[in-house]
Structures are given as C-alpha cells and as structure tokens.
Amino acid sequence: MNEKITVITRAKSRANYEKIVFCMKAMGNVASPLFTRYMHIENTRTGSRIVCTDGKRLHVANISVRIPAGNYQPELKDNCITFRNPADIIFPAWKNVIPEETVFKGTVSLDGLTAGTKSERDEKFSAVYCSFLANAGFSVNMGFLKDLPSAKWNIFAQGGRKKLVKLENATDRNQFAVFVPLSA
Fold this sequence. Notes:
CATH architecture of the largest domain: Roll
Number of domains: 2
CATH class of the largest domain: Alpha Beta
Distance between the termini: 45 Å
C-alpha cells in the first residue's frame, strides 16, 4: 500500500502548527465516540480547514498548508504533527453546530495569561473567566477557555434554549470555537 504522509513542523510553519494544536485540544480520547477521535480536514482555496470536536466543543481553523481532505488521527511528537492515510469514518455535519443567529456579546482577552507565577496566572484567568461570564451570560467549562490560544476573542451567543457560544479570534475570523454551556 502506498502510504501518503504530510508533516507539519513547528520550526518551518509555527502559525499553522499552533492552529492545528489548537484544534487537537478539542479531540476526544479513546473512550469517546469514534468520530471525536479524528481530525476532519477540508481543502480551501488557500490551504486546508481543520475541524475537531469532543461533543461539547468544536474548534475550527484554516491553515495555509494543503493537506489531502479526509479524517485523520494525527501524531504529535517532537514539535512535528504527522498525518498518515485518512481513515474511512463518517465525520458529522459540523457546520450544523455553528450558531447562525448570534448576538455580539463582547470580547475576552487571553493575552498574557502564561506569564508570572501559578497564582498570578490563576488570578489573571479568574478575571478573564468572570469577564466571559458577564459577557456571555452563562458558564462553560473553564478548561475550554484555557485551551484557546493567547489572543483577543470576540464572543457571540445565541438566545433561547439552544444557547451556544461562538468565540472568534479577533485577528483571524477563520479560527473559532463553539462551546456548549455547562447547563446543557
């Protein structure tokens, strides 16, 4: 069998590498449903769109490298991400999860959360989480916010029973996350 391999390294393509790692944080583990253990890749005009979900959140990012479309279990090792032959699984219709009728609720800045002692980082993150709660109007898993890259994120929320929140990178609209609230 002719194996097709694509490798993304942090050294050669830091921005693409970090966007892929961002998406991987929303992948499920071995005990999760099959589709959550895979990264869905679609081709775009300028590269690839990376999509991952664990069933409670969805991470999406566009990268400038073209990876053949398919569903992969990427390997992350030594600052290299390796994509081998895509698997023959069905990834759900992820675009149906993205909230359409949303209202801009504000912004949350995750810049500077990695500097300082652990207690200083925790204090900064507590302030960020309180800001998110005030803007979104409901809570989400704090770990989901911690998994977002350091950047300014725009918050969009739905009303009604189907409350979902979409956080969009303020400087890159093609990088976003959708969260299910804790009460769901």
